[in-house]
Amino acid sequence: MPVSPVNWSATRGNERTIDQAPVIVGGGVAGLLTALHLAPMPVVVVVKAPLQTEASSAWAQGGVAAAVGPDDDPALHLADTLLAGDGLCDEAVARRITAAGPAAIETLLRFGVRFDRDTAGALRLGLEAAHSRRRIVHATGDGTGREIMRGLVAAVRETPSITVLEGFEVRRLLVSDGAVSGVLAVSAAEPVLLPTSRVVLATGGVGGLFLHTTNPRGSFGQGLALAARAGAALVDMEFVQFHPTALDVGGHPLTLVSEAVRGEGATLIDETGARVMDGMPGGDLAPRDVVARAVWRRLGEGHLVFLDAREALGSSFAQRFPVIAAACEAAGIDPATQPIPVRPAAHYHMGGVAVDAQGRSTLPGLWACGEVAGTGLHGANRLASNSLLEAGVCAKFVAESVAAAPRGRDRALTPPAMPEAADPEAIRPILSRAAGVLRDHDGLAACIGTLLPLAASSDPALVALLIAVAALQRQESRGGHFRSDFPAPVDALRRRESFTLETALSAARAVADR
Ligand SMILES: Cc1cc2nc3c(=O)[nH]c(=O)nc-3n(C[C@H](O)[C@H](O)[C@H](O)COP(=O)(O)OP(=O)(O)OC[C@H]3O[C@@H](n4cnc5c(N)ncnc54)[C@H](O)[C@@H]3O)c2cc1C
């Protein structure tokens, strides 16, 4: 489709204010909070789906981790984060983000989010796996994300400096003289070109690239493709967290069955009633990646796997976990009397656009925030509920940095041809087979050979290729990345790896040519 530059702001009668305003791509917690922190500076939020839909933020169940309890301290939160990250966290970044957690909770409260409180009015704090203290701030039981998004969307709608373009998908970033100069987007009705020298990517995760995921369908790493094609570096791309218990009743995506259900005593069994985690350190509450591999292997042996909450929760299940109970009911399962069928599913991407402490990428004029950003907080494995924390805290850092950056000069932009709409469907089986819970050289090399010819014209193929290249290059197992052919961590490889599109493609060509 040929694209002509459309000065969409002219149609709003607000041309001077909006033209060259910072553009935020994505309307989850990261995008909306960045926009709110930038107020009263005029900003444009471009989001491909209506707000509150197609964003992981709205689906978050557990809550936000922050050291706000009387027995807690950011130093303890930092220690838990570093342990979960399996040697790859950026300690300075993790220290800064965990220290800013309590203030981020205050900010969310100020924007109207209503967290659960006890009868004395104090925040109720949940406990999740690998946290040494109760520090999970939550809302409406397992409906935390929905409530946070309700509050933020209401605040955004009431903020006149924020213009939201809903139903516009960003397909390319424009780069002039080595810096961001615009955004090319398209809605059902029209293509638009937004001239700007300041773009914040807040496009979420990559789960939609896998056959089984807990992420919304639209989370297939578009922001990573935008950044890579524009020349920005990506980091930690191999690290995908697979959640061990997604509700296995078919369809795409799958409903998450929170770890908190095992926290309440539910156990993993197969169809014979045998315990899946029997004899393993930590049992049913072992780290997420350990449980995911055990479930994956049991499924691979031809068994079915279930989460059995009959004895631990019984008739109280629906009251404690209303969102999960409703999903089970829709599938004809009563968790009070029946075991829940589960399987591992791609849940969270630790990697992303390589950013510094202000969220700046290696490309001038491009920032990243939230799940699409590779800040270094998570290392090789994310500590539960640290992602909403990261989005909440980093939105402020990013906004401060964007506000301090100079407005770009006006220039004539030549829009590229509009890329085709991205469709990850054909990519899912290829990536899932090679870069799922268990990976090895042969599977990854074959995957790279298949994806390489597709990557030039398909963003999902490109992002899947970048994950596979990084997974092939890391010849060890660490955190969420497990290589059957290199099953142990290797001290000498304990460093974060980043690459640009150019270097990743030349590595992929070398593999394909072998
Ligand atoms: C089921 C589930 C439960 C979770 N539970 C928790 C939890 O309890 N605690 C926790 O800390 N984390 C949890 N997470 C992870 C957490 O929700 C996410 O990491 C976080 O919400 C990401 O926020 P975000 O703003 O970066 O991205 P998202 O909320 O995913 O938002 C991305 C936005 O970008 C838009 N977008 C994408 N591409 C484009 C494009 N090309 N053009 C325009 N718009 C685009 C999308 O439409 C969307 O609005 C959970 C995730 C899932 C899936």
3D architecture notes:
The chain is an alpha/beta fold and 514 residues long. The chain is 32% helix and 16% strand. The protein has helices at residues 15-18, 29-38, 74-84, 91-99, 101-110, 144-157, 222-230, 259-263, 288-300, 317-320, 322-330, 386-404, 427-435, 441-451, 459-473, 501-513, and strands at 23-25, 43-47, 64-65, 125-126, 136-137, 162-166, 169-176, 179-186, 191-195, 199-201, 234-235, 240-247, 267-270, 305-308, 340-349, 352-354, 366-368, 373-374, 498-499. The strands form five sheets. Strands 6-2-1-10-17 form a five-stranded parallel β-sheet, covered by helices on one side. A four-stranded mixed β-sheet has the order 18-16-11-19. It is globular. The chain starts with 14 loop residues before the first helix and ends with a helix. Residues 1-5 and 7-17 have low confidence and may be disordered. The protein binds flavin-adenine dinucleotide. Flavin-adenine dinucleotide is lined by residues 25-31, 46-49, 54-57, 59-64, 144-145, 169-170, 202-204, 214-215, 218-219, 222-223, 256, 348, 370-372, 385-388, 391.
